[in-house]
Amino acid sequence: MSSLTRPGGRTARVRDAVLRATGDLLAESGFAALDLAEVARHAGVGRTTVYRRWGTPTGLIADVLVAMADESVPRARTGSIADDLRANARLVRSTLADVRQGRLFKAVVVAGACDDRAADALHGFYAARIDEWAPCVDEAIGRGQLPDGTDARQVIAAVSAPLYYALLQSGQPLTEALADQAAGAALAAAQAGAFAAR
Question: Does pLDDT of 74 surpass 90?
Fold first, then answer.
């Protein structure tokens, strides 16, 4: 575990303040306007601290995504694949529909399109969230609710994909009904064997 992620102490307090400031500035002004000196000012820490520990705007974004993955809500364990997928979709929806979080996600997606380090961090964030939720699909296979060979990671990705599309492309309102529809569509496809190994 690096000094940046060690719980407790001044290092952790500085990291929390800097990442909060980074998230606020990303949500407010986007990736193109992210400036390390401005982050330091908003966080109430020295500029040299930010430059030394994070180095670049993409270094900050990478650490923001690590923190977001670490702090994400654990998956549901309802015993029903339909309820688990619905819970996953509603969690994604509530995050993306939040004014600050929605803008933050847009900013980090833009960063990922511009910079390989930010892209790697974004991929790591999504992988961590899928890893958290994929066991509900594996458990459903074990209960006979889904076909053998169903790719759990693909099912979870299919749940959230329409919600990210709405946020980033279509502008469709991120309603709870849309979340439930996304979960239902992913479940129906999984039950039909669409995500089973051929």
Answer: no
Closest C-alpha to 62, from 31, 94, 99: 31
Taking the alpha carbons at both ends of the chain, their separation in whole angstroms is: 40
For residue 43, the domain's CATH number is 1.10.10.60
List Cα–Cα distances, 170 to 27, 93, 101, 174, 175, in angstroms: 20, 15, 18, 10, 13
Q: Same domain for 81 and 146?
A: yes
Residue 13 lies in domain: 9-63
Per-residue pLDDT at 188: 98
Q: How far from 30 is each of 10, 77, 154, CA to CA, in Å? A: 28, 36, 30
79 lies in the same domain as 150: yes
For residue 168, the model assigns a pLDDT of 87
Number of helical (H) and strand (E) elements in the chain, helices listed first:
9, 0
Are 96 and 164 contacting, i.e. CB atoms less than 8 angstroms apart? yes
Residues 153 and 100 in one domain: yes
Residue 2 domain-assigned?
A: no
Q: How many domains does the chain have?
A: 2
C-alpha–C-alpha distance, residues 11 and 16, integer Å: 9
pLDDT tens digit string along 132-167? 899 999 999 999 999 999 999 999 999 999 999 999
pLDDT class of 6 with cuts at 50, 70, 90: very low
